[in-house]
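Hey,

Quick one before I head out. I ran the complex with pyridoxal-5'-phosphate overnight. Inputs first:
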Amino acid sequence: MHSFHYSKGSLHCENVSLSQLTAEHGTPLYVYSAETFRDRFTKLDTAFEGIDHELAYAVKANSNLSVLRLLAGLGSGFDIVSGGELYRVIKAGGDPAKCTFAGVGKTRAEIEYALKEGIYSINVESEEEAAFISEVAVEMDLTAPIAFRVNPNVDAKTHKYISTGKSENKFGIDFEFIRAAYERASSLPNLQLKGLQMHIGSQLTSVEPFVEAVKKAAPLAAELKSKYGIEFFSIGGGIGIVYEEALASGKEAWWTEQDEATRPLTPERYASAIIPSLQDLGLKILLEPGRFIAGNAGVLLTECLYEKKGSSKTFKIVDSGMHHLIRPALYEGHHEIVPLIEPTGEMESVDVVGPICESGDFFCQNRELPRFSPGEAVALMSAGAYGMVMATTYNSHPLPAEILVDGAEAKLVRKRQTFDDLIEAEEVSI
Ligand SMILES: *Cc1c(COP(=O)(O)O)cnc(C)c1O
């Protein structure tokens, strides 16, 4: 599956030239491949076809309405973490009855909204939250479907900021308290104990932590089924993707493809390692993939403005930065950087930096990259997840536009912000 590749000397997304898109829409520009979204969804879905399962795409990875519409059309459910995300799912034509609602800090308004829309399950992160949901449900005179999130205390071996399944993380309820949580919740009014949920972290690149967590939690799920009649067990998201691949490998589309044999985590490997612990539970298994579906489906295109030679470094100053793609600054995320015009082989060691007044505003440091000059655009690969959703207008730069490519078609799915958009909600009132 090659959704991003060079063709006739210029980088394409499917059948659309990215240089053509920057000429038409300017930079910075996010571009997504519909084909990749479909491919990743289908691969993961197919890997689990042997058991009763459903994918609930983690909306926070990429919440563009057209992306949600595309996934809803494939039959996806959605894992949301706010009322705003539920609103997006509904606007995109998604089904609230296929939505699960996660997060440690749900407000009354969000709980009321989710219950009113008939959400599949609220995934509860503390006993206090369960008691509060019960209270709200009584007031609304309806039954709230809930699951508790168990914290299995497993080391996901990922960056500390995206690890969530250790007891020192704020997420979920400790294994030793979880049975008591269900017991107490079972006596609260207007609650239906519907499932068990966990999510141990993001960008996991080996299968072992998943196996350890599933093995630990599956017997608990079985016990909760026999005691309270729960119907689902959600094993969360977290499947990692390949961000970094050797430019030297000479492979076409090296940033999305890697030999299956050397790849640490594939849907098939993931599924075959954990299905044995799940297949006899008689529960519906939910998966909450975000990054796996969206990560390699998007790129961020940015134009080089200046080249600045310091005494020890060469800086390529580009028109995007941490305000549009914060992963490098926030958790040392790596993105391959690729010129839109196929490089001829000349390399140089550079820092690619943005215009923001922060020293953390860089995309890479001391990296060997194909030479590119001011006026040329480059693509930051694998920027489809946790990219645009974390973009801000810091330093009052308008947000980028977003394009969704499908075959030979490129649709503008989010307009570039204007200066007027930046100040729209503000008043000069003194
Ligand atoms: C963020 C999140 C996910 C998705 O994580 P990915 O690493 O993007 O797959 C799934 N479930 C929950 C509860 C989350 O918070």
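The chain has twelve helices and 21 strands.

Talk tomorrow,
K.
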